[in-house]
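Aim 2, interim progress: modelling of the cytidine-5'-monophosphate-bound target.
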Amino acid sequence: MPDFVVTIDGPAGAGKSTVARVLARQLGVAFMDTGAMYRALTLKALRQGVDLKDAQALTALAGMSVIDLVNEPGQQLKVLLDGEDVSEAIRSLDVTNNTFYAARTPEVRHIMVEWQRVLGARRSLVGDGRDLGTVVFPQAKYKFYLDADFDVRCQRRIDELKAKGQAVDEKALREDLAARDHRDMTRAVGPLRRADDALLIDSTHMNIDQVVEALYRRITGKQEADRSPAGRV
Ligand code: C5P
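Predicted structure of the complex, ligand included:
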């Protein structure tokens, strides 16, 4: 297959990252978690005490930062911030709840989008985010919009955190997720929305394997079980 880009956009908790990671592995291509890039910048700003409301300062920080996504066969995606592995640190509640500042800043988005396009031009990849099908890769060959009912998305997040042994304030989690959805959908630049030519997948009643299977079949025209082992990384 010649180089191609697969975009998976959708709201938080729809399962995008997991689906994108597994699908990328099955297709033997890279996985690009664009949310991780906005998170990494937010982490740096929080650490350095940069005022997140100061668009100019945040943009300057983005211009001085090197955010890399390292795909290694058989390993989780590694997120490097100026060479430091921040894969875990960017998942903190503090980072999660403050990432909207970077995400709403147009100049920051511009820098991120340019970098994402560079990565996409280098090799085939599966990317997940909010604006990949609409802004970053409008010409992508395969576009998906992954959604699920709000209650189901909340429950998935709760289960995920509990599985990690973390205490969960369910009421706060629901409020945070609703606030994040609202901000992602209403910001002026790169808002979350389904591209007209993106296939909508409602995963409310599907598990991860079923979603991956549906996307894999759509892309390759083959059943997931038919794929040759040579197609794996
Ligand atoms: O995907 P994830 O939940 O890790 O993304 C964190 C935040 O980063 C999102 O809530 C959104 O505000 C922002 N984001 C974005 N554009 C993307 C990916 C993520 O604005 N392409």
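The beta strands are 5-9, 30-33, 67-70, 78-81, 84-85, 125-129, 142-147, 199-202. The mean pLDDT is 93.
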